């Protein structure tokens, strides 16, 4: 009998998995189930051009409808999976329909974390196209915007709101922006970028409540007594992974659905990929959790191949970018694992830093306006190269040259 592979979650990872498993030779039925009404689309524009463009830009779809038709992928959109039964190999949809599967992929991603303070529901959140449209509409009349949270999304919204002419305040609880994704030096660069562009960026601030005023505006009240009036409050305080289906089905999770290097979960025949997954990485340990575009794509592709029986171990080097005030900042590897950072270039809008372990192994590169250094740095990370801090600090010594040294060696060839 013809097999069925079901994918729950029609986002970036789910969409790529569907297309890939067909291309990799799976000849059975493919069903892609999505809670959102849309076929898979790109989220990065949501905090950037969708907020800033004079006319709302066209949605960036990953694949045309004809692609799904040609590859015979059944799209079930606007309908969420309510539960899965791994013993009976069935998924039950919220509308009551049941679908039997031979293999199942969980690509359920995450949702924006709500702001957990009194009145927190007054802060708009950003994850979906509809969220972005709601923020875009409110930005139209907003003179004062307060962004709570200086992570990537909060800062991109702040930059977009400035581009729309609003006075923008960013309130961050930690002592620096982008604390999860860049080093202290990278954070200082980002903070400088925002301040140079007129953002009132305040760190170490605990938001206590959002209060509605008689005129419909809001006031963001802080624990230290400071108060920030706003026409629009947006919170970018992180993402919560959509784990409920996996947890209820008894599939192993640890702040992510646990998978092996072939995207297989603890349940036979069940796979997971993208933002929702916690996966092992040969360089970065047993439980990596990423929230980035390239990982969602490549992990989805890896799952599609695995589900078609053609997988190979997943070992992509983490990478993400962010665009703020016309500066394209890219981060390869994991700066958070570094013992120290060597800054090569700090001349805004340019910035290049290399992140090293205690034994001088390169584990990350952060670069603005220097994509070549990101490519060279990625090669160093992948090769597990050590590097000499003095040479790294000298921008006259190209990273590409350092990358040519022998395995584990340092210095240019
Ligand atoms: C505003 C924004 C800007 C970003 N910008 C960048 C950037 O500049 N650079 C970068 O590297 N990354 C960026 N990212 C991150 C990147 O977009 C994500 O990592 C990527 O979208 C994750 O894809 P995913 O498929 O794993 O999860 P998701 O995109 O979350 O997709 C999961 C899908 O599953 C659906 N779903 C969940 N539960 C169910 C269910 N029970 N039944 C059916 N469907 C379900 C959800 O509705 C969703 O559509 C950005 C993200 C956002 C939100």
Account of the 3D structure:
The protein has 11 helices and 25 strands. The protein is of the alpha/beta class and 413 residues long. It folds into 3 domains: 4-111 and 239-307, FAD/NAD(P)-binding domain (3-Layer(bba) Sandwich), CATH 3.50.50; 114-235, FAD/NAD(P)-binding domain (3-Layer(bba) Sandwich), CATH 3.50.50.60; 326-402, Enolase-like, domain 1, CATH 3.30.390.30. The radius of gyration is 22 Å and the shape is globular. The termini are far apart. Mean pLDDT is 95; it is low at 404-413.
Treating each run of at least 4 consecutive H or I residues as one helix, how many helices?
11
Provide the domain count.
3
Q: Beta-sheet strand percentage? A: 25-35%
> What is the total tally of β strands?
25
Brief write-up:
Helix content is 24%, strand content 29%. The protein has eleven helices and 25 strands.
Ordered list of secondary-structure elements with their pairings:
Layout: E1 4-8, H1 12-23, E2 29-34, H2 49-52, H3 65-70, E3 73-77, E4 81-85, E5 90-93, E6 98-100, E7 103-106, E8 110-112, H4 129-139, E9 144-148, H5 152-163, E10 167-172, H6 184-196, E11 200-203, E12 207-212, E13 218-222, E14 227-230, E15 232-235, E16 239-241, H7 244-248, E17 257-258, E18 270-272, E19 277-281, E20 285-288, H8 293-307, E21 319-324, E22 327-333, E23 340-347, E24 350-356, E25 362-368, H9 371-383, H10 389-393, H11 399-402
Parallel strand pairs: 1-2, 1-7, 2-3, 7-18, 9-10, 9-15, 10-11, 17-19
Antiparallel strand pairs: 4-5, 5-6, 8-16, 12-13, 13-14, 19-20, 21-22, 22-25, 23-24, 24-25
Flavin-adenine dinucleotide binds at residues 8-14, 33-36, 43-44, 46-47, 80-81, 107-110, 126-127, 153, 242, 245, 274-276, 291-293, 296, 320-322.
